[in-house]
Amino acid sequence: MRKAVFGGTFDPPHNAHIMIASTVLSMKLADKVLFVPAFNPPHKTGQVVTEYSHRLEMLKLTLKDFSDFEISEIESEYPDKPSYSLDTMRELSARFPETSFVLLIGSDSLRQLHTWHNAHELVDEFDFIIYPRPDEIPSETELIPFWTEKKAHSLRKRLLKMPVSSVSSSEIRRKIFENKSVDNLINADVKCYICTNRIYSGGGLTT
Fold first, then answer.
1. 184: which DSSP letter?
2. Terminus-to-terminus CA distance in the chain, angstroms?
3. pLDDT at residue 163, rounded to an integer
4. Model pLDDT, residue 166
5. Which residues of the chain carry a pLDDT beneath 70?
6. For residue 113, which of 121, 180, 40, 28 has the smallest C-alpha distance?
7. How far is it, in rounded angstroms, from Cα 79 to Cα 92?
8. What is the DSSP letter of 74?
9. What is the structure's pLDDT at 206?
10. The predicted structure's pLDDT at residue 202
11. How many domains does the chain have?
């Protein structure tokens, strides 16, 4: 069994997350996609992040009709420490030794990967699948100052050839705050949940 670990804040989860995960499965790069919402996202320090329980519930609503998508709450088990990818991947591998875990990240994260906690250990120990983000696809030349030429080449080769989506959680939050339609961006049940709990809402989300 091979599982792609799709980490993130998912604040909120949206249709592009589904498209990315579905592409990974259709290309047979993994048997399942494991969504791991971050409890204490280290890259969001100093930023306002929606309460974990809300993000988890929205993710459950988003994924409820997809049998090959799973959710792990593993990072909520360590509430007092940052949600580092290396720690999560190691813990998953230790708990499920019969499963091969590969890390699914965006090309924007690839550009910043050298700044991640113990990044070189992460790259040495685990495989990656990288999906493209608009205007955020680093060349090997950009990566080489932070990695060996061999590693830079290897990481760049893991970039998927798939449509690039410009949808982002920050855009969705902004639209909701401005009371604009997000009907084509998120699950209808998630929209209702956001409306009921007044998440992100300034003037109120139209139902």
1. T
2. 41
3. 86
4. 85
5. 45-46, 202-207
6. 121
7. 17
8. G
9. 41
10. 57
11. 1
| Residue 192 within any structural domain of the chain | no
d(CA 140, CA 155): 9
**What is the reported pLDDT for 196?**
94
For the chain, give the number of residues.
207
User: Distance (Å, rounded) from C-alpha 59 to C-alpha 52?
Assistant: 10
Q: Up-side HSE of residue 76: CA atoms within 13 Å toward CB?
A: 12
Considering the domain boundaries, does residue 196 fall inside one? no
Taking the whole predicted model, whether its pTM rises above 0.90 is answered as: yes
Looking at residue 117, its pLDDT comes to 96
In terms of residue numbers, what domain contains 69? 2-165
Report if residue 197 sits inside a domain.
no
Give pLDDT, residue 204: 44
- Per-residue DSSP letters for 95-114? H-TTSEEEEEEEHHHHHHGG
In a domain, 18, yes or no: yes
Distances (CA, A) of 34 to 72, 173, 189: 7, 24, 21
**CATH number of the domain bearing residue 53:** 3.40.50.620
Is there a contact between 156 and 139 (Cβ–Cβ < 8 Å)?
yes
β-pair partners for 101: 3
Provide the pLDDT for residue 201: 77
